[in-house]
Write a structure and sequence with these properties.
Layout: E1 2-3, H1 15-20, H2 22-35, H3 39-45, H4 48-51, H5 54-72, E2 83-84, H6 88-95, H7 101-121, E3 125-130, H8 134-144, E4 150-155, E5 160-165, H9 167-180, E6 184-187, H10 200-210, E7 222-223, E8 230-231, H11 234-243, H12 251-260, E9 265-269, H13 274-282, E10 287-291, H14 294-299
Parallel strand pairs: 1-2, 9-10
Antiparallel strand pairs: 3-5, 3-6, 4-5, 7-8
Helix pairs in contact: 2-5, 2-7, 3-5, 5-6, 5-7, 6-7, 7-10, 8-9, 10-11
């Protein structure tokens, strides 16, 4: 079971789920009270530019995923592993009982606010590189680091890697990537340098916050972003969630692990189809399901 991360958002997300369930409305009200803004209105009506802002996007996406689980209720599909891309890891942990829905929402609100503050403090950007190997990307980043911080941030697949760092460092890396033979190398429309050393102020703040959050042992294995391996000890989960802010997302390695475990069925919970798209190439699953809208939930038939 997969949970999407930032950039999967769209205006209107979660509206039909919200209208169908009192329990979902309570989740959104909890978030709105915590954030002191109407997250439901921003999710359902936009504007898109405001919804893209980190402190709004992250809780909005998590709320959408948790809304799907809430509406599914007792019909939540059986699964063997859970994983989420970056902020999606909180959805995976909530689905497995490691975090309560309420604590997951509050933690992501805090995480998103800290990351947006770090973006303002340390200006940066990200870029997607396609067609180069992990080793080639690492070499590009090392060379480009002479112009500013730049590191691999998301290992999304064997051929799609996102880099992150200062504007100068990333721009130099884009040039070098093209010279190295990349099929594509383009800057992304993001608010800052996520999963890079520029997120260090957020990492410190999140560590202090999560120290007081109850984390339970998950009832199903959760594959962690930082390691690409299952994690089940509460203290290790806490540590990895903090490290995640400055460490790369090892999604390709997560796919490798799930392939070794002979995973053949994939369900993505929340907005969009980004993770099922990546899984289609990496896992070649027999079945793929996206549960995004109320119609998807109502039409859902568990895989037998």
């Amino acid at each position: 079971m997969f949970f999407p991360g930032q950039a999967s958002q769209y205006v209107g997300m979660g509206k039909d789920l919200y209208e169908s369930s009192e329990a979902v409305r309570r989740l959104y009200e909890l978030a709105s009270d915590e954030m002191r803004l109407d997250i439901a209105r921003l999710s359902f009506e936009g504007p898109a530019e405001e919804l893209k802002r980190t402190h709004v996007t992250q809780p909005a996406i998590l709320l959408h995923s948790l809304a799907v689980l809430t509406v599914l209720d007792e019909n939540i599909p059986e699964f063997d592993f859970a994983a989420g891309h970056s902020l999606g890891e909180y959805g995976a942990l909530a689905a497995c009982g490691a975090l309560s829905f309420e604590d997951a929402v509050k933690a992501v609100i805090k995480r998103a606010a800290l990351m947006e503050e770090a973006c303002l403090k340390n200006e940066g950007t990200m870029a997607a590189i396609m067609g180069l190997s992990i080793e080639q990307i690492q070499n590009v980043c090392e060379t480009a680091s002479a112009d500013g911080v730049v590191v691999p941030a998301n290992f999304n697949s064997e051929i799609q890697i996102v880099i992150s760092g200062t504007v100068a460092g990333v721009e130099r890396a884009i040039t070098l990537a093209k010279e190295t033979g990349a099929k594509r190398a383009m800057k992304l429309e993001v608010g800052g340098a996520f999963h890079s050393p520029l997120m260090e102020p957020a990492r410190l703040g999140l560590g202090e916050y999560l120290a007081n959050v109850v984390i339970n042992r998950p009832n199903k294995p959760v594959v962690a972003n930082v390691t690409g391996q299952p994690v089940d000890r509460p203290e290790e989960i806490r540590e990895l969630l903090v490290r995640q802010l400055t460490a790369p997302v090892k999604w390709a390695q997560t796919m490798d692990f799930l392939k070794e475990e002979k995973v053949t069925e994939v369900i993505e919970i929340g907005p969009g189809k980004v993770l099922t798209g990546l899984a289609k190439r990496a896992l070649q699953p027999e079945n793929m399901i996206n549960l995004d809208k109320l119609e998807d939930v109502n039409n859902f038939v568990p895989i037998v």
